[in-house]
Amino acid sequence: MAIEQDHKRFRDIVRGKIRENFKKYITQGEMVGRREKETVKIPIPQIELPKFKYGPKQQGGVGQGDGQPGEEVDGQQSGDPTQAGDKPGEHGLEVDISFDELAEILGEELQLPRIEPKGSKQLESTKYKLKGMAPVGPSNLRNYKASYKEALKRYMSTGTYNPDDPVIVPIKKDLRFRSFKQATQPQSNAVVIYIMDVSGSMGGEQKEVVRLETFWIHTWLKHHYKGLQTRFIIHDAAAKEVDEDTFFKTSEAGGTLISSAYNLLKKMIDEEYNPSEWNIYPFHFSDGDNWSAEDTKYCLRLLKEDILEKVNMFGYGQVESKYGSGQFLKDLVKEFPEDDKLITSRVPNREKIPDSIRDFLGKGK
User: Fold this and answer.
1) Distance CA 134, CA 120 (A)
2) Cys-Cys link to 288, which of 107, 191, 293, 328 (CB 3.0-4.6 A)?
């Protein structure tokens, strides 16, 4: 019981430290590369851990004897602070925290409302998994090898086994059947589709902003959809689906044709994600440049006629670049001034990532 209390107290300290440095964690991304399957490693600086302390003098016990205050336990004096040392310095503590805990802190700190999924909240599938042997069961699950072993053990224990006439006849109590357990699992009823402009005007800093923001968006959505699927699309003048690693490492130098990405998104939704069964979240990140005004008009038509009606929300994040005009955001706002399916956000730098996350997730869609 005491151990559980200590563990809870330690977790509370960790949560407090995360809150204290929350903006730094969002904007610096030092933990994004430390992801595991269900947890993320977070470096916690300056956390107070238990340490030994000298008691009153003349009390006896371990640690008593000759010595002066401040002297090292091994008898060596403290080193000269002006000279280079050969010993490692102190380091912060690195702790594991689950994505659910991280999402809770994110929601509390940014005051995000909980998401209300559209359609069925609980799409479940039943799976059956073989788990061992049982003395009863249907004949089609009878395991002849296991049944023979049981019969042989019975013959041996009763002394009736004859090696010169090794005939083994199983009886009812020797029979063994494969057994199974039933497990109900939530199906993947939500998909988030990240789209990024990788044209020449999107540099490394812009891509890092996208990487950090998508990590936090994904953490929040995964908290609400346990079977969340993730897809990635990159585009310059042409679009293609890629894996996550390629999504953040691709460097292109071509022009920008945003409609190529929106056409691929439309195709993906039409062929794989029925809007009546799926909660769909596309997020597009760009610096706002497009090849032509005509292509922008085509993009707006695709959104209006084919995409917005099928998704929970469509997020467009404009990452500022000294080479980008930022015009696409202006065109979106002008064309969709009151459509609550389209949410836009300007991300001029890393420090504005928390505001952008709040823009996208603050409506609980």
Assistant:
1) 37
2) 328
Check residues 86 and 177 and name the one with the higher pLDDT. 177
> pLDDT tens digit string along 298-309?
999 999 999 999
DSSP letter at 79?
P
How far is Cα of residue 248 from the mean position of the Cα atoms in its chain?
Answer: 16
Residues 214/150, Cβ–Cβ less than 8 Å? no
Alpha-carbon gap, residue 107 to 111, rounded angstroms: 5
Listed in order, the ranges of the chain carrying CATH 3.40.50.410 are: 190-361
Termini Cα distance of the chain: 41
Dump pLDDT digits (tens) for 100-122: 888 888 888 888 888 877 655 44
For residues 174 and 168, the answer to whether their CB atoms sit within 8 Å is no
Report how far residue 250's alpha carbon sits from residue 241's, in angstroms, rounded to the nearest whole number: 12
Find the DSSP H helices in 159-237: 204-224
Hey, what's the torsion of the CAs at 345, 190, 196, 22, to 10 degrees?
A: 50
Token pair of 62, please? 């371990």
Per DSSP, the three-state class of 156 is: helix
Half-sphere exposure of 102 (CA within 13 A, CB side): 24
Q: Which residues contact 63 (CB under 8 A, 6 or more apart)?
A: 54
More reliable by pLDDT, 196 or 41:
196
Share of the chain above pLDDT 90, in %: 34
| CA distances to 9, 186, 223, 229 from 226, in Å | 28, 7, 6, 9
Please report the pLDDT score of residue 197 as a whole number.
93
Q: Which residues of 243-255 are buried (b: 16+ CB within 10 A; e: fewer)?
A: eeeebbebebeee
Contact 43, 30 (CB under 8 A): yes
Distance separating alpha carbons of residues 185 and 345, to the nearest angstrom: 35
Provide the pLDDT confidence category of residue 342 given band limits of 50, 70 and 90.
very high
Which of 60-64, 213-217, 358-362 is least confident? 60-64
Q: Are strands 229-235 and 190-197 parallel, antiparallel or unpaired?
A: parallel
CATH for the 190-361 domain, from 3.40.50.410, 3.30.420.40, 3.90.940.20, 3.40.1440.60: 3.40.50.410
